[in-house]
Amino acid sequence: MRCVVLDDYQDVALAGADWSGLDVTVLREHLDDPADALADAECVVIMRERTPFTAELFARLPKLRLLVTSGMRNASIDLAAAREHGVTVCGTGSAKTPPTELTWALILGLARHLAVENAAFHAGGPWQSTVGVDLAGRTLGLVGFGHLGRAVGRIGKAFGMDVVAWSQNLTADRTEAEGVRLASGLHDLLGQADFASVHLVLSDRTRGLLDAAALACLKPTAFLVNTSRAAVVDRDALLEVLRHNRIAGAGLDVFETEPLPLDDELRTLPNVLATPHLGYVTESNYRTYFEEAVEDIHAFLRGTPVRELTLDR
Question: Which domains does the chain have, with CATH numbers?
Answer without folding.
Answer: 2-95+282-301 (3.40.50.720), 97-274 (3.40.50.720)
